[in-house]
Amino acid sequence: xxxxxxxxxxxxxxxxxxxxxxxxxxxxxxxxxxxxxxxxxxxxxxxxxxxxxxxxxxxxxxxxxxxxxxxxxxxxxxxxxxxxxxxxxxxxxxxxxxxxxxxxxxxxxxxxxxxxxxxxxxxxxxxxxxxxxxxxxxxxxxxxxxxxxxxxxxxxxxxxxxxxxxxxxxxxxxxxxxxxxxxxxxxxxxxxxxxxxxxxxxxxxxxxxxxxxxxxxxxxxxxxxxxxxxxxxxxxxxxxxxxxxxxxxxxxxxxxxxxxxxxxxxxxxxxxxxxxxxx
Length: 279
Description:
alpha/beta
């Protein structure tokens, strides 16, 4: 992890990850990174009420079943995508991702991958059903954006169609994941499946313009709140679903007003210059 993290107190402005990364990498002699910038967004209106929708989740946080191979925590241009049975228990997972602080999600999977919360919303009738498969992938340093747009994301959209998914909730974990997952959400939307992204990287999401986004001013790896905060996790997920149901314009963006409830550190992964130059 970054050896000099910035401590965030409640109520402060969102982190500018693009500025922070430019300064960090610039200090090591790297050229400025060119982020994906979109002026508009695709938009597919939700075809039915939420109570009739089949919903799936995509998370990019290096999460895998314990029975599956672990993710390479330093993954680079790895387009692996794991299908997760929708009835998998939340204690059946492992997490390996060096690009954000894993502490929260290792304590409570639902901080990042809210499978229990989504199942609860299916049980109480907020949504019609959980799709038969959840998804984990598009993690790490992904620079092959054209291959994501033209190959990996369309293939993923085809799998969602096999499951008759009506709505995808997309959850990026680290700063660069916000770009990759935003691109994936756009492709899925273009394929006819509505999406909503849950972001903690406001500046990056505003550049990429997923079709719909809710933003929480929380740390990377915990967009749904702190471990054990079940009501907050459920409320944020419900807010995302509500935006999917009510948005009328492409690129809809909502700033949520929840307080994380504790100071947190902005960490950028291993920023040791020798390590970065090896990568």
